[in-house]
Design a protein that fits this description.
single chain
Amino acid sequence: MELKDRIRKYIDEHEQELIEDVKTLCRINSVKGAYSVGKPYGEGPYNALMAAMGICERYGFSTMNYDDYVIAADLNNGEKALDILAHMDVVAAGEGWTVTDPFDPIVKDGRIYGRGTSDDKGPAMAALYAMRAVKDLGIPVSKNCRLILGSDEERGSSDLPHYYAVENEAPMTFSPDSEFPVTNVEKGHLNLTVYAEIDEEEAADHIVEIWGGDTTNILPGKAYAIVKGLDDDLIRKEAEAVAKETGVSFRVSATSKGLRIDAEGKAAHAAHPEDGKNAMLALLKLINRLPLTACELTRLLKSLEGLFPYGDCYGKALGAELSDELSGPTTVSANILRVDGCSIKLDVDCRTAASSTEANTIAPVLANIKKAGFECRYTAKAAHVVDGDSDFIKTLLNCYEDVTGLKGKLISTGGGTYVHDLKNGVAFGAVGESTDTNMHGADEFMPIDELKDAAVIYALCISELCR
């Protein structure tokens, strides 16, 4: 029997155990909470780490605890060769769940539903079961594979410095926190805070406030403004025109502060702003069409729309437009806006192309922001690129092709994973490129067949890379 068939048989025989272990972890609400001694990211992430460590130990793996930030499980005591890097924390449950409650995982129609099933508790267990298969089947490996489980990936990966302060990177690392085949390019990040303060005498007569978005990496599906001294029929007429142009809907209602304009579009991850309808920018478009008193605030609102016009997902107006064959285009997502009578503040998330530099991206962006009358704070991180011709990458692709029968290829992403700062780290699985698991959304799920495929692929990779 071929090795992959032996591994497949093992995973099939342990399918129910795999499902139950995923469900055990997904019953734990591991959204980041408040720090306490011994629980750096709160009760939930700590409990998820401890539960995962218990599962690893139950299957005979030696474990290490890195100050309750990270745990690790080793296949053997051999030379460091391969690290598999996953995480136990999850994003907030959010609204709109219909199949089950977020932290009450169930199996339905060949899928495990629940928060964390695909991001990243299910894939983490696929990696662990790959290690189980290698160990229990006696597959000969002399070097070590280590499963590293963190607890702060969703909120900045501040856990990893605690691990790498005492451990060196393995020669090879992959994270099962994306999709197959191999993601060897992660775009860079340019995060902007665009702001302006306005003298009280230059404040607008008509604008009470404008609000949009609440998450730095999510394009906002909802926004609102409160205005006063304007005719509601006029607002509705302009809103109807903007709705036709943008696909964003508007509702006007009376409040004690004035007329409230609610905008509803479609939220999307900042890495893929083209998938959404930015309610906040559509609202800004509408506000700038109203007969507002000319002043510094209204002038700046028009300038802001000039920098971030609705539908400009690739930063042409901002001066960030750039694309290359390696990573694809830079994307720009304006995500949080706060406006009152005397101030404007906008947070923007740019995922920059691999060829992006200070000269061709950051400098022109900052110049255009200043020219429009705004100040700007920013942070920048370069793109992450791993050589696609390395033996490591070729092995991953070969194992993927062997199990799935599909052609392997290299892909890039605008998202960021645990491996972004690791010299030889890539994202690898754990679902197919065309599978949308509602990650970060309602009714998140993990297809059981794909979870098992991932375990087989990972076991083959371990057998090859840790010989």
